[in-house]
Methyltransferase
Amino acid sequence: MKSLDDFLGKVSEGDCLEIMAEMPDNCIDMVLTDLPYGTTQNPWDISIDLQKLWKQYRRLLKPNGIVILTAHGRFTGELIMSNPGWYKYKLVWIKSKAPNFLQAKRQPLKKHEDILVFYPGSPVYHPQMTTGKPYGARTRSTTKSGCYGPYGNKENANNGARYPIDVIFLELDDWIYFKTAECEGKAVHPSQKPVALGQYLIRTYSNPGAVVLDNACGSGTFPVAAIREGRQFIAIEQNKNIFYLKDQPLDLISYCRARFAQEQVIYQQSIQNHE
């Protein structure tokens, strides 16, 4: 067993189950990762044994920690049923660009991905408010029934603030919209997620200084999001069978290390500028 400092702020190369087994108990505030879905014929898209994965998540997660996993289609169901006791709800990310054009004449283009939320206790939750049209006071009638028991008259006024909903898009007042990764610059991984999406989730479900684990970090999107939001991160990547182009293998470990170092410099400079 190694110490937490052996992993903080670093990307480890290898099998995530083996690497997580070396980490100390109850050291993670938030798991945020884009696991391989196992739904394509890509050589990198091989599912991780979910029962073994949950064994490590249970051991590593703090009592009030949270696990956020992206998914789609059949893999969504597999993830939910792999730990139904912890599963609480899902968010839906509406993407700016729909892939799956080879199947366009056979099925709808896949415009969304699921974001599954799991936790065992009472996790951190900071709702990211949006802005809508203010409305005046309203009065509810006294009732003896209701989803949450009896309640009496109550006057409400709203200044336009809106609680977030479970669809992440921003064409309506209460939707939050994040473009796909290539809109932020060169995307080097086939399933790369946007940093802005990771930042939103990290702000919502963790406190500053929290430890965020991404055990399938790919090109490092979610650890970058953690850096930008003032969180600590632990990254793991198997680094096998990844090609930027068909004949150009990509070393994700070297790529992530350079990317993280650059982001750390930018973050430290931003802190100094605000002092």
User: Anything to note?
Assistant: The CA atoms of residues 269 and 275 lie 10 Å apart. The radius of gyration is 20 Å.
